[in-house]
Amino acid sequence: MTLLSFLSGFFLGGSLIVAIGAQNAFILRQGLLGQHVFVLCLICALSDAVLIAAGVAGLGTLVAQSPALVKVVTVGGAVFLFAYSALAFRRAWRPDTLKAAKSGETRLGAAVSACLAFTFLNPHVYLDTVLLVGSVSAGYAGTHRLVFGIGAVLASFVWFFGLGYGARLLQPLFARPSAWRLLDCAIGVIMAAIAIGLLRSLAG
Question: Which letter, b or e, does each residue of 16-55 get, where b requires 16 or more Cβ atoms within 10 Å of its Cβ?
Answer without folding.
Answer: bbeeebbbbbbbbbbbbbebbbeebbbbbbebbbebbbbb
